[in-house]
Amino acid sequence: MASKQIAAFLTMVAVVLPSLAMATEYIVGDASGWTILYDYQAWAEDKVFHVGDKLVFQYPVGVHNVFKVDGAAFANCTVPPPDQALTSGNDTITLGSPGNKWYICGVGQHCSQFGQKLAITVEGLSPEPAPAPISSPEKPRKWKF
C-alpha cells in the first residue's frame, strides 16, 4: 500500500517539477513596472500565462500597492481591506491555479481614473517540451557462417 502511495507521489513530482522549472517570470508592465496611465491589457495580450508562472509587480514603495480581487471588484475598482494589500514594491505572485485572475492598485483613484489594473487568464501547467525522437533499432543482422 505504501509503495503505491510513494509511486503516485513520485509520478506527480515527475510531472509537476519540470513544468515549474520551466515557469516564466513576468515583470508586469516590463520596464514601466506597475504604474498609472499604462495599458496593462495590451501588455498581457500577447502572453500566455501558465500555472507556476510568476507575476512581479515593481513600483516605488508607498506610491502603489497590489490587490488580488475578483471580477466584480476589478470591474468596479472596489478596493479590499488594507491588510490584504501587497506593498513591498517588488511583489511576486505565483500563479497557482488556472482561470481568470484580476489585480488592481488600491491607492487613491489609480484603478478607476488611471487604469492601474490587470486581468489575465491562466492556463494549466506549461506544456513539457516534446521528447527527443527515439530512433528505431536496427534490424538484427543475420550472420552466415
Automatic annotation (TrEMBL):
<keyword id="KW-0479">Metal-binding</keyword>
<dbReference type="GO" id="GO:0005886">
    <property type="term" value="C:plasma membrane"/>
</dbReference>
<keyword id="KW-0813">Transport</keyword>
<dbReference type="GO" id="GO:0009610">
    <property type="term" value="P:response to symbiotic fungus"/>
</dbReference>
<dbReference type="InterPro" id="IPR039391">
    <property type="entry name" value="Phytocyanin-like"/>
</dbReference>
<dbReference type="InterPro" id="IPR003245">
    <property type="entry name" value="Phytocyanin_dom"/>
</dbReference>
<keyword id="KW-0472">Membrane</keyword>
<keyword id="KW-0325">Glycoprotein</keyword>
<keyword id="KW-0812">Transmembrane</keyword>
<keyword id="KW-1133">Transmembrane helix</keyword>
<keyword id="KW-0249">Electron transport</keyword>
<feature type="domain" description="Phytocyanin">
    <location>
        <begin position="24"/>
        <end position="124"/>
    </location>
</feature>
<keyword id="KW-1015">Disulfide bond</keyword>
<dbReference type="GO" id="GO:0046872">
    <property type="term" value="F:metal ion binding"/>
</dbReference>
<keyword id="KW-0186">Copper</keyword>
<dbReference type="GO" id="GO:0009055">
    <property type="term" value="F:electron transfer activity"/>
</dbReference>
<dbReference type="InterPro" id="IPR008972">
    <property type="entry name" value="Cupredoxin"/>
</dbReference>
<keyword id="KW-0732">Signal</keyword>
<dbReference type="Pfam" id="PF02298">
    <property type="entry name" value="Cu_bind_like"/>
</dbReference>
<feature type="signal peptide">
    <location>
        <begin position="1"/>
        <end position="23"/>
    </location>
</feature>
<protein>
    <submittedName>
        <fullName>Phytocyanin domain</fullName>
    </submittedName>
</protein>
